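Appendix B, Record 12. Input sequence as logged:
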Amino acid sequence: MGVLTALAILAGLIVVHEAGHFFAATWQGIRVSGFSIGFGPALIERRRRGVLFALRAIPLGGFVAFPDDEEDSSSIAADDPDLMRNRPLAQRALVIAAGVIANLLLAWSVLLAQGLVLGIPSGFSATPGVVVAAVQPGQAAAGSGLQPGDRIVAVDGTPLAGGQEAVMALVGRIKDAPGLTLSLQADRNGTTLTLPLTPTDSGGIGRIGAQLQPNGSETFRPATSPLEPILQANHDFLTLTRRTVEGFGTLITHFGETAPQVSGPVKIVEMGASLASQGGSSLFLFTALISINLAVLNALPLPLLDGGQFALLLLEGVRGRPLADRYQMAFMQSGFVFLVGLSLVLIVKDTSQLPAIQQLLSR
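Logged structural output:
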């Protein structure tokens, strides 16, 4: 059920994104010829009011199609004012930006719903120890025998407290011990294990290749006023958006160090399934965070993404005329090859790291 929930959330986020483009176009009277979730051959398709709605075989996103881009749209006059290319720059810009706007609005709405349904966060109900959320194969944590779900309760005989302070304390010990062996005490399903952990020396800083999180759960209280859930949603939305933008910035400026941490759809579904099993605030936060990530990713000025199309539109505004069709086509095709290739690499990498696949490979 957790996997199905995560898949449903991802599919919903894609639908919302594409619906943003679709409704921004139809609201302005711009002709739309297709609305697709996924790429490649259609599995299910229906035509309504001249628009082909389709569910396609490759679940790596979606797209809204316009007659401008289709060769068989000769029945529509080239100077038709309702064609996308014949509309003013501002109207086309709104259509392009609407997907990003829709995902940001959804994220804020989900955070508001959390405040209305669960209440206002009032702290963390912490219990001793630090939970290992994920382990990267081939890294120090995996070599020590740590597994996702383990709860680290002590380091070199010193017990760990609870909450974020315990995570910070453990991370500090790891960073200060590059090449040195730490003795961990971990609880695994009620069994206490002693595991030797030797952090890798990365420029004088210890690294272990594991995702750590506090042991416990978020607590909530009823809102004291109708305005409080809105203020809390604003605060959480701005915090998540800032951290997401900073994360993408770090990826660009320190690509070599952060690229191995980039996750694809398989890893996102695995993480979502884990959070879905916890329920409550974890599911709200997962939905909002992935929606914001999808918005920021699409805003990047890369070919085939909304940001890339927006860049072409800005260039048209500066030049006073659009870029030649052959250059636009080359720009978009290069982006398609890059994004599909990157998606396949991430899918293979993430799939190979799934516990079930690791067990098969170790036999």
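Confidence is low (pLDDT under 50) at residues 345-363.
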